[in-house]
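Troubleshooting: if your tokenizer reports a length mismatch, compare your output against this known-good record of 141 residues.
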Amino acid sequence: MLSPVLVWLIIGSIFCIMELIFPTAFVELMMGLSAILVAGFALFIPYDNVLIILWMLFSVGLIFLTKKYVLTNKKETLLLEESEAITISSIEPGKIGQVMYEGSSWSAICSDESLEIPPEEAVYIVSRKGNILSVLPKKFV
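Known-good structure output:
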């Protein structure tokens, strides 16, 4: 029969290898490292239920720490100062419309929430937040 330490080392190794094969943003790697850490605790704690709970706690903790400190948010893409687009649909005040930018349709909102931009109007791109462009009509810039 396998000792609990060896079982946890095998489980940890399998999770670490799975991360190499199926990348999951370090989730499997953290679960594997947690299992290896629990293998150390298995030398002193003979209760399987306690070891499983420790493994779950370590896994969740390491996953959240990895997401918070290791995986940083992507920086916003810098747009050129004179980026231009054409509205596809009207952009009503405070609402999202569609613009054609670099050959693709993008969601856009007017930077000045009191303006309405009609379709087929040339606009300047002021900023980008996620996949929504903030625009201003060319005639007002």
